[in-house]
Fold:
Amino acid sequence: MLRIGKNFCQNNHIGLTDIISCVNNADFDNQEHQELLTVGFKDDNLDKRLNAQYVFDLNFNTEQLFELIDNNMNSLKGVFFTRSTNQGIPRIWQQWLNVSEYCENLNIYTQALPTPSVRGGTIRNKILRWRQEIENCM
Structure:
């Protein structure tokens, strides 16, 4: 299945990356960290705070994304973020806003899309929305 997805992306000139490069202090000997990062994982677990301090120290790929955009801007049609709301993820969302603004300055289409997970609605509606947004940038 992974090979089919990889072939589809290559054949359609689609690149995928993550905005987070590393969770620096993830400790799998820590039961709370295990639960936050694996059991019923949600994006907002990455921005969770305890006593006003973030639980996880995150590294972001933002500078690498800028470089990737620069290196491909002649063929790049759009940049998408698979999260359509900033609720619960302020640090992650800020990185998306940085990437989105960078693209806007280069006249590259950007859009936040609903997450591809089955949470929060049917996958069919999400696929239709993705298709519509991708067609908007062609």
